Amino acid sequence: MNFQFTSKIKRNLFILMAVGFILFIIGFMGEKNHLYSEVVTAEDGTESILLEYYKELPFTKEEFISKVNTAAAEDGISVSFKDMISHDAHEGNAEEASHEEHEFAMLLTPHSLETAETHAHVEGHEHDGEGHGAEHGDSLDAHADEADAEGGHDAHAEVAHSPMETLEHIIHHEGAFADKGHARTWSNLLVNAFFFFGIGLGALFFIALQYATESGWGVVYKRILEGIIGWLPVGAIILTLIFFAGSMQWNHIWHWMDPEVMNPDSSHFDAIIANKQPFLSQWFFWLMNAVYFAVFLLFARGFRKRSLQEDIEGGTKIHMKNFAKGALFLVLFGYLSSVMSWHWIMSIDTHWFSTLFGWFVFSGIWVSATIFILLLVFWLKSQGYLEFINESHIHDMGKWMFAISFLWTYLFFSQFMLIWYANIPEEVTYYLDRFGNYKWILWTTVAVNFVIPIVLLMSREAKRSRPTIMIIGAILFVFHWVDVFIMIMPGSVFDHWAIGVLEVGMFVFFLGLFIFTVLRTLSKAPLLVKNHPYLDENLHHHT
Amino acid sequence: MADKIIYAMYDDDDKLMDGAKMLVSKGIHVNEVFSPMPIHGIDDVIGVRHTRLGIAAFLYGLTGLMLATLAMKYFMIDDWNMNIGGKPSFTYLENLPAFIPITFEFTVLCAAHGMSITYLLRNKTLPGMPATNPDPRTTDDRFVMEVRASENTKYSAEEIHNMIQSTDIVELDVKTVK
Predict the structure, then answer these.
(1) CB A543 within 8 A of CB A61
(2) What string of DSSP letters covers A335-374?
(3) What residues contact B104, with CB distance under 8 A and at least 6 apart?
(4) Shared domain check, A230 and A122
(5) Of A176, A321, A436, A541, whose CB neighbour count within 10 A is largest?
(6) Interface probe, candidates B62, B87, B90, B108, chain A, greatest A C-beta count within 10 A
(7) Tens digit of each residue's pLDDT (9 = 90 or more) over A101-148
(8) Where are the domains of chain B?
(9) Which residues of A touch B85 (CB under 8 A)?
(10) CATH of domain B3-50+132-177
């Protein structure tokens, strides 16, 4: 029996997409950019905020300083400014001097009015621009010290907010301006495009795994998987557009795509990135993109074609061909999924690298795909389809969801612990960025994605129960989306992340489009395969 | 108390399954099935209670987790704290990531060993223990179903005997215990 993609379902999905799109537009109109700020601690323990901005700003440095001073006076603190731009690099003509007014790099130190004298003026020019790198807390332990210092400060102050918190608040307000580059929109596009492409890819991997292992238990899921794989061409187009925009410098998600970074004569030259030039170069990026998409889409097309052919012809010839192609795909996927995650996601945090990252991304992909399969199956069953999928089939897929959740946690922790233990500056930056401004969201994600499955999905009955799987699946689905969010955002919008109408709207829109494509593919072939050698065994599946 | 135990032997697990289904549908209680490999679904048919080995495994795992935590807290923090790789070694929590692999391994070790030993003890199949299966061939390629007359008072031993004979058996053995 075919799935009937009725106009009522289509209408509901269009409504879902429209709601998402409207929410996104509302968020898009109000999208604000902020000055890049970072809390730095000097050797004597004083905390300051480092502000940096190198692109065109709607206000000059002097205007910004006077705005901050006014707001600071109202809130009862004073702020001292220290210029961090090396002026040797900018000697010369008037054009550069006017440009310089829009380039920020200064250190703001808050003082409470009761304890410190007021000195709100721009100080010293002797500070070297390169010097501030050493002042960042380069160790994970530094944050514990910072927290202690903050706690101690609070104990002395009578007011609820420390001067530091007040200053952060002022900067957040005064440093905000309409974002012409739309960093949040672009980054969110990538988050959603990758997350849903990942689900399609997870399904493709899963079907290849079942062919290569000649599994009998999952034959009833085959058409569901093929439906989900139907998203891959759409997802590939969206990803290609985002990558193209990155190459054209329309978005700045990938810092290394800026040609100035590789140019030794430029003031934006970055030796660490330049040393990775063979891998992080436009031609190699696009060559590999062609390889990724070609391999994924061609195998997806082949599996689908043979699956429909098997329905008509029968026999074991197609089965054996799928076996060989499945094994071949697994080998290719093993390499490509890792390199793909390095190119697409890991290179956003350009200085950082981790060999394990590809597997971590892959485990997230796989578990998201498993969860989506279960949610889709339960929905289809509630619509009166898939009567042949029994409790044992659900139980087996539930086991996968349970097990891969721990694969994900295991890989997250392996990556984290090795970096924590070695404490090498190149590596810890990744977690410093995430512990700084993403701390609660990061640990919530890890806790939810680990604790909920281990506690609630351990028993046999839970893996067979529709309400349990539906609720836990929905929670985990959202939090694996958040996991992708945390992979991408810290390197592209830094600390100015939010989950607001823009993010929710775009997620809802993508979800609608994704489900629409999946259901459309699903409606094109019968929900149960014919002539699969293990079909009869699978229909009597019992665990 | 005198009892009659009927052992019905099959040469295929599907035949045993069909036989068991037929007997159970007539209200006969099948006491036990001996098989060289797991027969999926037979426990539901003959009404074996669900195993509690999983609960035991969970408790063993919890024991391992607690033992590992207590031991490492004592070794590495209280008794002789060592500075490994420049990491703070004064509280357990600050050093937690370093302890997690050992906690995990010890949890698995305790759960796996505890579960295996419990299984062998509960089934009375520890190495060297006398075999409890009625026929050595059930460890090879035969499947045996055990029905006790004392548990099926609804029918006489003869009636049960006849009913079993009507299924697809290869051998039938009756043992009388005093």
Answers:
(1) no
(2) HHHHHHHHHHTGGGSTT---TTHHHHHHHHHHHHHHHHHH
(3) none
(4) no
(5) A541
(6) B87
(7) 556 677 888 877 755 444 444 444 444 444 343 344 344 444 444 444
(8) 3-50+132-177, 53-122
(9) 421-423
(10) 3.30.70.1710
